[in-house]
What we know:
The protein is α+β, with helices and mostly antiparallel strands. It has helices spanning 3-27, 90-96, 110-122, 133-143; strands at residues 34-38, 47-54, 63-69, 83-89, 97-103. A five-stranded antiparallel beta sheet has the order 4-3-2-1-5, with helices on both faces. The termini are far apart. Residues 1-25 form the signal peptide. Keywords: Signal.
Amino acid sequence: MGTTRRTFLWSFSILCFGFGQAAMAKDEPFKPGQTWTYRGATPISSRVIIGAVDNLEGEDQPVVSISVTDAPIPNDGKPLQTVPHLPIAANQLRESVVELEGTGTIPDGFGHGYGLWRQAYDSGKGGYFTISVEEIVGLLRSQLGQQPVAK
């Protein structure tokens, strides 16, 4: 086998392995501590961190509680850099995430926000998002008076 052919086959197998890794990440079950990139992240350094995954009675899919880091949102004059807790339908999160980067620490404030949400949900007064992470962050920014950050 010639050098050119071997180089091509080696490059092709590496390329396929990379595609396979990306596909495996897309199918990876959500677990607390995972850090994901997501579509439309503004700034591009913004990340989703999984805090909890709940299989709630009466729901047709899990609800994933996330934090969004490096997403400046107005908060009484001082931008909030991390949104500590957002509950989102698993299928919407799956459509939002791009790449699993690894695992890390769940941000401060997640537990408190999760506890408040879970209490509200369990009493029939809380829900969860069924829109993309990009849309959630945009909604928070517009509701709190900030124009979207340029990409």
